[in-house]
Structure of Stage 0 sporulation protein A homolog:
Amino acid sequence: MYNVILVDDEPRSIDALEANIEWRKCGIRDVHKAMNMESAISIIKKHKIDILICDIEMPNGSGLHLLEWLREHKYEINCIFVTCHPEFDYMRKAIQLKCYDYILKPIDYSEFSVVLTKLVKKMEASSIEGVDTEAVNWGGLTDYQIREKENSFSEQDVERRVKKYIREHMMDSINIPDIAKELNFNPQYLMRAFKNKTGFSIGDYITKARMETARQILKDTKIPIKDVANMIGYADYAYFTRVFKKEYETSPSEYRNRQNKQDNGE
């Protein structure tokens, strides 16, 4: 079993990560927490820490600065970085410092558990073979491979931000130029990256998201169907009905009636 330290200047991020990972199943015994580089170093000096899980962008010493300090002082600690901003220069520096992996926020906790478990298994294998655990890293990647990883993270960021925009503007008239302008992306890149990640065009995803929202409202409330249509951005009730029927092979009123009968045990 290994010990980890979570380092992030946002307490909610640390608490969420601590709460959503089954640490012992991943091979972790103790979880320490710090909110800045100075506090992290103090804990590392006092406790046996095997894995650093750290945000990159922090005031008063970034995650890269912390890992650089650890390498300079010969601490054999593996590192997983988390960040909101995938950037080539960050990745290259992280690799130079023998970082194991680089995960984009918001964290997919299932994915994170897989990454952490793989790291622990590699550390266990290295320990058995007598290999320095510090060698468990990205070190062999070329600039091209780093760019490929950056592109993957960038597309993941596009997917996350576009979906968030759509959720927050469900009642509005949504179009790709407005999304691109708001998120500061080239429209062509935005469309390509989103489809690469989701398999849907942005337009198709907007429709699906709206229909799913409508379905939930129809199921869970008694709001008039015309108002439901307005709530998800459809001023034309007849058009909303056609789109809903195409998606679910039933009209909104038929869907609600069927749900009511099921709820009443009919």
